Amino acid sequence: MHTEAVQDGGLHACSVCPVGGLFRNGVCQMNEALSTSDSVGQKKSVEQGVRDFVQQPHIGNASQLLAGGVAGAVSKTCTAPLARLTILFQVEGMQNNGAKLSRPSIMREAYRIAVEEGFTAFWKGNGVTIVHRLPYSSISFYAYEKYKKSLLHMYNMENSSENIVAGMGTRLLAGGAAGITAASLTYPLDLVRTRLAAQKNEKYYRGILHTLRTITRDEGAMGLYKGMGATLLGVGPNIAINFCVYETLKSTWTEQRSEVPGVWSSLAFGSIAGIASSTATFPLDLVRRRIQMKGAGGRTSIYEMGILRTFVHIWKAEGWRGFYRGILPEYLKVVPSVGIVFMTYEFMKSRLTSHGS
Question: Where are the Solcar repeats (predicted)?
Answer without folding.
Answer: 59-150, 166-252, 261-351
